[in-house]
Amino acid sequence: MQIFSLNIFSTIKNNYFNDFFRGFKSGIPIALGYFPVSFTFGLMAVNGGLPVLLTVFISLSNFTSAGQFAGTSLIIANAPLFEIALTTFIINIRYMLMSLSLSQKITSEMSLFKRHIIAFGITDEIFAIASLEKNNISFSYMLGLIITPFLGWALGTATGGIACSILPAKLQSAMGIALYAMFIALIIPPAKKSKASLVVITSGVLISSIIKWCPFLHQISTGFRIIIATIIASSIGALFFPKGEEEL
Amino acid sequence: MIYSFTAVIIMAIVTYIPRVLPLAIFKKKLKSKFISSFLFYVPFAVLGAMTFPDILYSTNNIFSATGGMIIALILAYFQKNLLTVAISGIIAVYFIELFI
User: Fold this and answer.
1) pLDDT (tens digit, 9 = 90+) per residue, A34-66?
2) Do A206 and A155 belong together in one domain?
């Protein structure tokens, strides 16, 4: 009996570790993709006159790209606090959709405390990787997935802030495409495999382009543009390609 | 300094709220087939909407960005991993900008 229970204990421990390690491995490419982006962020903020420590603190406490870029440029421009709050919030409302989507993917017995911790790590890329996992996802998997991108984000910011202009401007410009290229690598394979994903992705791209390029509509902020495109494109998917329960 | 620090704290709070609320509130699986299908498609829709057209404005000029995007699309189509696609995109943009 004693041996039996010990065995169970070590199996459970192994599962925790395996999940963590699996998440950790998936997090490495995200971290490498984050480095140039947060590096650019560090450059921008310190060039704009913010102290390096505060710049790193922004990355540690916000851990988001578009939102903190926008917020920080507003700080540099001495904008009113209310405007900073509103802009950052609007850009980040999209996380609600991701958080809601993840709430259906995580093991339902996960405690409120653990939910509060993994919520902090929801970024576009971490969400994309986690949500494309086949099975339900555990706390240790999420922890492993979040830790490296978080460190990469902070480290990139610090390096960018300290080494203000080590990189030639041409290379800095080229690095701007890194995250988008990664997004492409994430969406093309499922689009090849399933017609439903292809339709949803194409709808998202089309709606986003229409809003961005049409007169009047282009006044809509980036955050709202993504929310509107996501809601319409996902509804099209749900209407025309409803998922059977066994697939979800 | 107090102004910047306060602003950063406010930013951190308004970034965390949308991340945590749904995860903390929805503990059960949703029953509606429409809503669960909708949520299943959210990642594809978000990534599509975020990538294009924004990728076109992510570098110094639209030509280098288009070049980098085409390289990324081709490599992604042949199932290369994330990092290969990202680095090849950067290299493509870098070389195009040497000429344009």
Assistant:
1) 887 888 788 878 877 899 999 999 999 999 987
2) no
